[in-house]
Amino acid sequence: MNRTNVQHEIKPTPTEVTKVLTAKMQIGEGPVWDAKSQRLLWVDIVGQELNVFNPTDGSNRTYKFPDIVTSATPRQAGGVLVTLRRSVAFFDPATEKLETIAEVEADMPGNRFNDGKTDRQGRHWAGTMGDVDWNHPIGNLYRIGADKKPVKMAEKICCSNGIGWSPDNKTMYFCESFAHVIHQYDFDAATGDIANRRPFTTVNTESFPDGLTVDAEGFVWSAQPVFGRIVRYDPAGKMERIIELPVSRGTSVMFGGPNLDTLYVTTMRTTLEEAQLAEEPLAGCLLAIEPGVRGIAEAPFAG
User: Fold this and answer.
1) Which stretches of the chain score pLDDT less than 70?
2) Helices (H) and strands (E) in the chain, counts
3) Percentage of the chain surpassing pLDDT 90?
4) What per-residue confidence (pLDDT) applies to 134?
5) Cβ–Cβ under 8 Å, residues 156 and 137
6) What's the pLDDT at 107?
């Protein structure tokens, strides 16, 4: 559902979008497919919840947290790594024990973590943003390895968001939401270093790039709220496809399922007025698309 004042740049591709879970997530975000358990992990940031969705039976297990939870990823050692407001923690779903392993930006109380993703070498990347000054360049991007030590990799970010890597592991994509740009970096998989930041693509200022993922063909899938769409870009940054959603605020995307051929879409209700919510009964639900391409298996955190 397009709530901007502009038309799509290319004609949308007719695509069936299905509801796989009825929910009222305030800010559904951060989906990641756990190949080992065949479950989808995702969060409700302001709802302070970690969700674990089982597509086999449609069930969804919810875990409540004492603060906002902004990203999650399975751990190689068992359990889940999560980012909270300004901390990184290990969470054990069996005992619901939460163990803080690192904290960032104690000198910036107005900042909080936002989206995060684990690279194929098991390092978790997570960025920050201004919780109130959300459209100011005060965020930073961190890399957290098995040593549990956050390393600042980029700074002066205007809302850190979606992250992904090309199939050959040579390029990292990173959304700076309120600069309305998806950046690309040269990525050194062995060291985790990034260099040579340049624009991959820009997004109309009526919207912004939110969560993203990369498919097996090297195309980038970008959730773009307010436009109510998912955009697929080719490796050169050109729009290849637009899929319209039945909601205006799809927030992130992730390939899952046994064959990694289902594209899950998280959505949100926050910022919508009552009349708009009445027009968008699926806002806050978990959606899915069968786009005809496959994703790339996600790696667990190496710790």
Assistant:
1) none
2) 1, 24
3) 98
4) 79
5) yes
6) 93
DSSP 8-state code for residue 75: B
Q: Which of 111, 108, 114 is nearest to 126 (CA)?
A: 114
Return d(Cα 223, Cα 248) in angstroms, integer.
Answer: 10
Structure tokens that stand for 39 in this block: 């479950």
DSSP 109-152: TTEEEEEEEE-TTS-EEEEEEESSSTTSS-EEEEEE-TT--EEE
Place of tokens 């709802």: 47
Tokens of 238: 């050109």
| Degrees, nearest 5: CA angle 274-263-30 | 60
Which residues form the catalytic set?
210
CA distances from 200 to 61, 188, 212, 235, 248 (A): 36, 18, 13, 9, 24
Residue 68: both structure tokens together:
């906002």
Distance between CA atoms of 231 and 216, rounded to whole angstroms?
A: 16
State residue 274 phi and psi, 5-degree precision.
-55, -45
pTM, rounded to two decimals: 0.97
Half-sphere exposure (Cβ direction) of 148: Cα atoms closer than 13 Å: 13
CA dihedral 279, 282, 283, 288 (to 10 degrees): -140
Q: Which ranges of the chain does DSSP label H, i.e. alpha helix? A: 274-279
Quote the pLDDT of residue 189: 98
- pLDDT for 248: 98
